[in-house]
Amino acid sequence: MHAILNVIHWNIDPIIFEIGSFGLRYYALCFLAAFVVSYVLMLKIFKREGKTQELLDQLSIYIFLGTLIGARLGHCLFYEFDYYSKHPLEMILPFRMIDGSFELTGFQGLASHGGAIGILIALWLFSRKTKTDFMWIADRLIIVVSLAGAFVRLGNFFNSEIIGLPTTLPWGVVFERIDMVARHPAQLYEALAYIVIFLILWTMYQKNAKPKPGYLFGIFLVLLFGARFVLEFYKENQEAFEDTMKFNMGQLLSIPFMIVGLYLIFRKPKNN
């Protein structure tokens, strides 16, 4: 990474090393870091509130699977439905058949909105299984989810994906693996926004460990998906069909989350 003519050139190989057909990517490390950091912070919260580490371990499994499955299906259904409706097995298998031979593809398409839906479903299943209050978990889990999102966007930056629109600003980034155009580093904008949201939620929780049920969850939904809605104006559309839309798919999918967030913030507690 080096600065030339007031812009930053980015040409990092997203693969750290390869052994045969397996390659370790920076994105995978960022994804792993997201879960490790989230686990450590959630453990602090659980201990503070008298919950066991065993319960957190169970929750972590649900969240990991919910995130991965939801993000994968979200990408396939929201962004590339035409292709995957004809190749449904490729939604869940990390390879495809071309001319009778296997091609290892990995899961290269993951959608954050799908991941959010997957997490909510995982939380619902977990709360039923363990008889734990859904809103209690949600109000605490979202504190670390925003920070985890920052790690994921950093991984997108290493992958030179989800790139921004062209810009003449001095911090524009030329993603040389894509083209030689200086662009908004939209991934870093989003990562920074998520870090700020994490700090806000963490501070609110530290000051009041027993907020109104659903209140922190609502703040999270409004802030995170509000930031996502605004920052989409600085991004290239991910799929061609979005070019004819006033608001792209990421923005349209953010609106319901923000509406639910506003409801959770302003609703009256049941005991009132």
Short description:
Keywords: Cell membrane, Membrane, Transferase, Transmembrane, Transmembrane helix. The chain has 272 residues and is an alpha+beta fold.
Written account of the structure:
The protein is built from eight helices and eight strands, in the order ββββαααββααββααα. The chain has 272 residues and is of the alpha+beta class. It has one domain (2-266). The strands form three sheets. The chain has a four-stranded mixed β-sheet with strand order 1-2-7-8, with no helix packed on it. A hairpin with a 2-residue loop joins strand 3 (15-19) and strand 4. Helix 6 (186-207) runs antiparallel to helix 7 (215-231) and helix 7 packs antiparallel against helix 8 (249-266). The longest helix has 26 residues, at 53-78. It is globular.
